[in-house]
Amino acid sequence: MADGISSHAKPSKIGKNIFVAGCCIVLIGIVLWLFLRQAEEPTKQPEGATSPGSIKSSIKTIPIPSEKIIDYDKLSKKNDKALTALMEERKAPYGVEKSIDMIVKPDESIKVGKETVRMQKLLDEVRLKQGEILETDLSAESKSKELDAFGIRVVQPGENIWDIHFNLLKDYYDHKGIDLSPSADEPDHLGYSTGVGKILKFSENLVYIYNLRERRLETNLNLISPLSKIVVYNMRRVFSLLDRIDYKNVNRIEFDGETLWLPAVQ
Questions:
Q1: Residue 158 — pLDDT band, cuts 50, 70, 90?
Q2: By the 8 A CB rule, do 110 and 152 touch?
Q3: For a tag site, which of 31, 198, 230, 233 has the least CB within 10 Å?
Q4: pTM, to two decimals
Q5: Is 44 helix (H, G, I), strand (E, B) or coil?
């Protein structure tokens, strides 16, 4: 009897174990199938999101603006049409087509031969020479960049500061329709300076001579080396002065070495 019970229980236990094992296999298979299916499906992006590939393709290279350099050599050779047109546009309001080589802004640089100098550096030296404290005032600096323009004359062989000033004055009056005589700056028959001569003498206080090679302002106006020095005009200061002078009264101008004025009519 005991042997009979034992023989019937063994097949039942084996079958149960087989059934459990089969269920486990099926369950494992289902899990693997679900996992593989999910891996094959593309990942859904949230609405409005972009894939890494699209982000990469949408990034544009923002060009870094090159330094604004006004190249004298390109202007003198006239092989840069855009630069030539820009200078002609800037010169037009002043009528200085011949006497000024370049008109530049404080945030630009000038290049003559191998030498390049930032206008802001040059202007800082001017302010130091005048005893001004170099402080950064963003609003004032922005206003200065809008208003100020600087005329640059590259000194040529045989030129002197007086001739350079006279040519600028002649250009200015030609633009006004006034023919300035080549001898208008010469003393009169009594040896007194003419009004034009006084303007030229006073204008020496409104300009600066900069040595490109030595990177410094010159104090001796008589020593000018060609193609290594430049004469710098503050166009706003110079032309605001000239615009206040009626040429009909030019010979009534008085100059005491520092101040230029027109005496009141008695």
A1: confident
A2: yes
A3: 31
A4: 0.68
A5: coil
